[in-house]
Amino acid sequence: YIVCKFHDEWRETVQNHLERxxxxxCTVSFFFSPQALFHCDQVQYTxxxxxGWQDLGTAFLEHKEQVCSYFVLINCGVNVDxxxxxxxxxxxxxxxxxxxxxxxxxxVYNDTQIKLLIKQDDDLGVPSYDDIFxxxxxxxxxxxxxxxxxxSDGSSEPSGKRRRFDExxxxxLSHLKGTCIYRREILFDYEQYEYHGTSAAMVMFExxxxxxxxxxxxxxxxxxxxTDQWVHDKITHMKYVTDIATLQRHVSRHNHRNExxxxxxxIDCMRISFEYDLRLALYQHWSLYESICNSCYTSCSFKxxxxxxxxxxxxxxxxxxxxxxxxxxxxxxxxxSIKENLRExxxxxxxxxxxxxxxxxxxxxxxxxxxxxxxxDVVHAAASLLENVEKDESATDNFIKALDCLSRSNxxxxxxxxxxxxxxxxxxxxxxxxxxxxxxxLSQGPFLYCHLLEGTPDxxxxxxxxxxxxxxxxxxxxxxxxxxxxxxxxxxxxxAAPMDVEKGTVIVLGIPPESETSDKKNxxxxxxxxxxxxxSSRTLHDHFDTSNxxxxxxxxxxxxxxxxxx
Length: 566
What we know:
single chain; alpha/beta; 5-stranded parallel sheet; 24 helices; 50% helix; nucleus
């Protein structure tokens, strides 16, 4: 379904049904939800955060009897046979907007109960219907007919008739066997790599735009969804730049839209702007020095885990001509004369030190006259609130708090999330430095492997998928910068961390090799599944991202064999 076709289905459903079960996956990229569209049409709905397939199944069972037969799934459900997984009634209809790829072929070709919201220019590469579901029953019946005809002549006949039967049936069996192998090969080629399509938040915004119900808040949420994909390295640079250009046109359209005088003068008005800003995490809410030290791009470029890296950082600061007193204090407290052209000064010095990509296309927002945030600031804050481990709260409570931080009327919650994000980035930087300096990254033949042990500082933080993903990306990039082994520079990384000490479970993540031209496709999901099958290991593939299995501690040798033969 492209957006326009989906719009017709959605409109008809909204006009004729008043309740929904809205199933949410707990990630940042789709905090923009159909809630705004439901509010516009005065539709009652139930919002259910889910963290994995078990949560989704449980939520479906709990709510299917309470509401009507219409369900909206945001960023979950597209990459499995949903009808087989949930076993719904025949009158149940699922609207799915999911960035996970590949899309399960059954979901693609079942347009009766499954309604997919996918942009027309997203190349899914789905095999043709005939290649996957072609009916060979006619050929089977022909084969059976030949079989019964020969048998009716009696079993005492000479072996010549038996030979004629074999000559008749053998080509049919060979054809059927070849067809099954052909189908398996097609499905294997289609399903072997996991990747991500257009952000669900961005697709939902375009649906609102088609329905002429888009607002600046919706636009800002879609920007956050795209930025989340960039921060967590889920899409290629080209895809990011292309989607940025699309959103930039929407920003220009909204900025030129005539607003009433009350909104334009309101103290909490929103202004979105396109910017080329620095690749320094949270620098406007931190000190410049701390941001440089804890940002992946600059930390890896300087190799700050080494003494030479620290010296190079001091040379960099001296080249910019910035006093250490100014650099080490909060950004808001820096002299205005320094902040006015800070980005240009940093970019000029960064080019001298080989950091030619220190600036990136992004968006910023002003809430009223005081509060200013970059999209990446909000992503880091929301992700930290979502995976907060400082308080023993449920995933649903954390989800609601993360959702609250996106409201312009709840700036305090956003600042709380930013504080948590600073702690997380510091923990990641310290863990990376420790792993590099103590040689915890091991070469296991076709891949690199790192296992965080119990007792490692902040190890509880890395029991969460998003935090572990940032650590894994940061660590692999740092290793590539630090190693002299050319072969190791092109290897993928598998990382394991304790998840539940009492249960003895381990969360494992696999990422592809570090490369600026990487297509961001990940084959570890299938490799993990095959390795678990071959070793009968205790695993739980509960994450919507298949490259995050659990309890995979006793089959690393099988993973190695799978990667070798992949």
